[in-house]
Amino acid sequence: MKAVAVVGMQFGDEAKGKIVDVLSNSRDVVAGIRFAGGNNAGHTVVFGGKEYKLHHIPSSIFHGKLSVIGHGTVVNPGVLLDEIRQLGALAENLRISPNVHVIMPYHIHEDVLLEAKKSSKVGTTGRGIGPCYADKANRIGIRIRELFDGESLNRKLEFLIPLKNSTLQHAYGWDGALDKDAIAMEYAAYGKFLKTYAFDGTVPEGTVLLEGAQGALLDIDMGTYPFVTSSHPTIGGALAGSGMPKADAVVGVMKAYTTRVGEGPFPTELTNEVGAKLRQEGREFGTTTGRPRRVGWLDIPMLKYAARVNGVTALALTKLDVLAGMPEIKIAVVYDRAGIQINALSHATDVADATPVYEIVKGWKALSQEQWNALAQEGFAALPEEAQEYVRLIERSLAVPVAIVSVGADRNATILRKPLHEL
Fold first, then answer.
1. Alpha-carbon distance 111 to 407, whole Å?
2. Whole-structure pTM value
3. From CA 386, how far away is CA 365, in angstroms rounded?
4. Residue range(s) defining the domain that contains residue 108
5. 296: helix, coil or strand?
6. In this structure, is residue 317 part of a structural domain?
7. Contact 32, 20 (CB under 8 A)
8. In this predicted model, what pLDDT tens digit does every residue of 193-211 receive, in sequence order?
9. CATH number for position 177
10. Residue 213 placed within a domain
């Protein structure tokens, strides 16, 4: 069995969903496993001319492959049910690990109320992800398997609801009260429905895609702490959250520029009309929240760090088309910190007081989406020469080959420079 991990190289939103969708189309792929995160992130996939927004379900679902929500994730059952209904018959190959932890109503209250009290905001989505992972670490979390058994769920809630009511009311000043019986009834109903999707742990022989959410710079240990997510979107999280013993290949997904949602350092951020243009052209608004994303130039020192901590063996470059029409494009090639040049980060927190040093390259002409689609079918050599050189510059800088180039949202707007079996 071969495992290929697909990880984000930036702050998330790199279009990992599309890359997983493209790779899932290979006959070698037998399964996809979502390994971390919850509905604080989303993947937008265009399939059959229709746009789908997934928050829990792996993008491999569109190709009839076994698609597993792995035990490293946290799940809001109500949101998951909505996704299943949206997919209809496409969801028949969905499975969920019984060890997935459940986002409960009190987690969402804790998330929102704690963020309101912080003097330094993180920019959480307020979906209850962090508190759910905290309860998992405190060994008081509720797992999907406990929703299958009404007595087990009731026992847990008899302890947890008074505890959470006390915390919410006294620590956060909440004026509400959680109703144990109502929650028990609602979540037992979820359990009855989700039990039919329980995963028995059997994966057929072949290639398994490991699909994460967010990106390396948001990893709770490796990222720009405290402005990070609550899980491990890096390769370590891929293995721990999926149960796979190793990754045979690691595909690092990166945009042709950089975006970030929420607070935290962002050395190459553009707050001018150029940033506004990139945001509009790239449709840079959060899949989960709809929030406008912060936008900036490509950041090589950051990408070198992400490639190192993930052991990236191949790159997938997305949204190259969004840069079209700009007379010149900037790329941060090093950082300046107090007069000392830094080529690559030793840790993501090094970006906090870094000043980017830019190299300016020539842009390429604007094209319609139909023209990009046609060029994609012809192959890499058909792209504008300046766009090809931009890709080569990235390869030289990171010493990792760009195996996939995406020039549009549709699956056909993709150039495979290396097939899956060569990754």
1. 37
2. 0.94
3. 9
4. 101-196
5. strand
6. no
7. yes
8. 999 999 999 999 999 999 9
9. 1.10.300.10
10. no
